[in-house]
Amino acid sequence: MARTIEIQDHITVGDLAEELMIPVTQLMTDLMKIGVMATVNERLDFDTVQIIIEETGQDVELKHKEKEVVTKERKKRSYSDTATTRPPVIAVMGHVDHGKTSLLDSIRKADVAAGEAGGITQHISAYQIKHDDRLVTFLDTPGHEAFAALREHGAMLTDLVILVVAADDGIKPQTLEAIRFANKAGVKLIVAMNKVDKPDADLNRLKQQLSDNKILIEEWGGDVVAVPVSAKTGEGVKELLDMVLLTADVEDLRADINTPAEGLIIESHMETGRGPVAIALVESGELKPGDFVVSGTTYARVRNLEDTLNNKLKVAGPSTPVVISGFKSLPSFGDEFTTVKTEKLARKAAEAAGIEKSKTSARAGSGSDLISIMNRSRDLQQLNIIVKADVQGSLTSVINSLKSLDTKEVAIRVIGSGIGSINENDAHLALSSEAIIYGFNVDLPTSIRQTTNRDKTSVRLYKVIYELIDDVKQEMSDLLAPEVKETVTGKLKVLAVFKTTKTEIICGGEVTKGKLVVPSFAKIYRDKDVIAEVEVTNLKRGPQDAKEVIEGEQCGLNIATKSKLDLQEGDRVEVFTREIIERTL
Ligand code: GDP
Q1: Average pLDDT of adjacent 10-residue blocks, the chain of 585 residues
Q2: pTM over 0.85
Q3: Is the terminal CB of the chain with fewer CB neighbours within 10 Å at N or C?
Q4: Which of 93, 95, 96, 97 most suits a substitution to test ligand 1, by most atoms within 8 Å of the C-beta?
Q5: Hey, CA dihedral for 211, 71, 364, 427, is it positive or negative?
Q6: 194 Cβ inside 6 Å of ligand 1
Q7: 99 pocket-lining for ligand 1 (C-beta < 6 Å)
Q8: Is the CB of 280 under 6 A from ligand 1?
C-alpha cells in the first residue's frame, strides 16, 4: 500500500526528507540529479516533489492538501429588516463537453419570455429566465478561471452552482475543480446528471463517484440534490429548475432595494456605435435610467437601461443582469460599480480611483511579474489558449482539433472560448493566465488591441483552421525542451602530461581513431572507467594551432577542467561535440 503525503503548494527540502523518511543529504543529491540545487530550507513546489518521488521510486502517493483556512468566507451581503427576496444567481460549471452550454440553451428554450426573443446565438454572459413565475439569474462565465477571477475580487455573486456531469463519462478533472471552487466559496451545489438519454449513461456509477468525492446525494442519505437530466431532450430540466428554486428558498436570499444601486461588472466590450458597453449584475438597490454609475476609474450616465436580451428596463433590482452603455472608457471585469447622485461626483470618484491606481501600479507590476515567472517554471509544458470564433460550428471544430494535439510533454489548455469578437474579458483572462488568444474568423477591435498590446498579450487571427493549428503546433514545439545530441568524433591516447593546474591541463598524445576537433568536449577513460568530463579548448600539431587532427597524427591539447584532474600517461580521451537540436512536434 502506498503511503500518502499531503502538501499544500510547497514543502521545504528538510520537511520532505522527513516525510519520505530519508536523510536530507540523500534527498539533496537526488534533487541534483534532476537538476535542482536546493538547500535544506528551500521550498519545493508540488510538481518538483512529484518528479522526485517518481525518480526515486518511492511508494508514496502525493496529494494536494486543501487549504485549512477558507481564504475568503462567502461574503453575505448585509441587509436590513425591510430587505426583499431576490432571485438566485446561478453559475453552471463542469468538465468540458459535459453539456454546460447545451443545458443553458435548453433552460433558455424552456423559458417562454426568453424564447420569444428567439434565435440567440451570441454568447450572453448573464441573463434571467422565469420559472413558475419566478426569476432565476444565470451566469454564463467563460470557464472556471473567470469564476476564480471574480472570487479574487472578493466578489461572491453566485448563490448556487449547478454542477453538470455527463452520466456516460463520470467525474473528470474539471468536475473536481468545480467542486473545490464551490466548497471553498461556501456555495451550495446542485448536481445535474446530464446525458441520461444516452444508452451508456450510468447513474449508479456517477452517484458512487460523487460519494467517493464527498458529494453525498439525498438519495444516499446526504444533502446534495442530484437531478437526472438530458440537455438534448429537455428531460429533467423542469425538475432541475424546481430544485434550484427550492434551494434558493432554503437559503432565504434577500437584498435591500431602497439603497443606491451597487453591483459588479461581469463583462465589458466595445460596440460599434455605442462605445464602451458593460454587462453588470445589480446586487442591491435599484438601478434606473438617468443614474450615475462609477466603476473603478470610469463612470457613466445610464441613458438606456436594458436587460441582456436588449429589452428596455425602467428599473433593475437585485440579481438583475443589465447592459449599461455610456461609460467614458471600458470598465474592468470584476470591478464593483456604485451609483452616485450627480455627474460631478461620478467624475471625481473615477478620477480619485485613477490616482490611487497609478500610485500602486509599480508595486503591483513587480508582484505579478514574480507570479508569472513562478507559473512559467511550474507550467513549463502547458500551453494556455483562448479561442474565439464566429459561429458555434467553427468553434467546436477548432477546439476539437486542438484537443487532438495534446502530447505527453505539452498539454493544451483551452481556458476560455466563445463566439464573437475578442473582448476585454478575453484580454483580462489572457493576461492573468499567460494565454495566447486565437481568433477564428473574428476581429480584434482597436480598443482591445490597445489593451493586448499594452499587456503584451499575443493575439493571432486566422481564417483557415489548419493555419491556426500549425501556429499552435509551433507554439507547442517551442515549449519542448531542446534535445542535446552528442557525437563522438575521435579518440586519443595520452603519451605525456606537460602541465597540470587546478583548471587546466596540457598534454600530448596520439589520435587512435577518427579525428579530434576543437572546441569540443571529452571523456577521460582510465581502464574501463570514465574518470572525468572536460572541455578541449585548443589543439596543436607541432607548434601550430590546429582545428582538427586526424587518426595516426600526434598532437598537443589543452583541456579545461572544473575539478582537479590527475591525468596520466596511458589515459584515453574520447572527444565529442554537442549540438542543441530544437524539437518539433
Ligand atoms: P460544454 O463544453 O460543457 O459546454 O458542453 P456542450 O454543451 O458543448 O456539449 C458537448 C457535446 O455533448 C455536444 O455535442 C452536445 O450536443 C452533447 N450533449 C450535451 N448534452 C447532451 C445530452 O443531454 N444528451 C446527449 N446525447 N448529448 C448531449
Answers
A1: 76 84 82 75 80 80 61 48 87 86 84 46 72 89 53 62 95 84 82 97 95 90 94 95 93 89 82 80 93 92 88 94 88 83 88 64 32 34 86 83 79 83 88 88 91 90 89 86 80 91 90 92 91 91 89 92 87 88 69
A2: no
A3: N
A4: 97
A5: positive
A6: yes
A7: yes
A8: no
